[in-house]
């Protein structure tokens, strides 16, 4: 991933710019995760900008071509998108955004919030081309558009 965030005290705000053209080839258990952004614990807030053209290797079990969000144990992880665009990313699962827990204890807290002027479109994958939620809560409000995904089920 171009942006790798790991740690309970990490808090990052992305307001403009571009995270583009990155390829995740392997991480936990040799599964590529988070072509653009890899978030494990902590908080990432996207208020603008573009996450585009990233890949979690399509030839394997890649997850989160644009954004990968994960937690385990009793840790907290939050991804908040208040503006911007996630588009043109590829991954077998959750080409735009993918969230999951790992390990034996699934008591971690995780939330994904989409609000304001958000666009998630044109991502390519087999399972949840727009968003794939394996674990965590999804909250949407405002002008959130999820569509034109290259797969049968965008969400």
Key phrases:
155 residues; 0% helix
Please provide a written account of the structure.
- The chain has strands at residues 3-6, 11-14, 18-20, 23-24, 37-40, 42-46, 50-52, 55-56, 67-71, 76-87, 97-101, 109-121, 131-133, 137-140, 143-147.
- The radius of gyration is 14 Å and the shape is globular.
- The mean pLDDT is 86.
- The chain is mainly beta and 155 residues long.
Summed up, what is this model?
The protein has strands spanning 3-6, 11-14, 18-20, 23-24, 37-40, 42-46, 50-52, 55-56, 67-71, 76-87, 97-101, 109-121, 131-133, 137-140, 143-147. With 155 residues, it is an all-beta fold.
Tell me the series of helices and strands, N- to C-terminal: EEEEEEEEEEEEEEE
SS-derived structural category: mainly beta
If you compute it from the alpha carbons, what radius of gyration comes out, rounded to the nearest whole angstrom? 14 Å
- What's the count of strands? 15
Describe the sheet with the most strands.
Answer: 8 strands, parallel
- Specify the number of helices: 0
Q: What value does the average pLDDT take?
A: 86
Shape: globular
Low-confidence stretches: none
N- to C-terminal separation?
Answer: 23 Å
What portion of the residues fall into strands of 2 or more residues?
Answer: over 45%
Helical content, roughly? under 10%
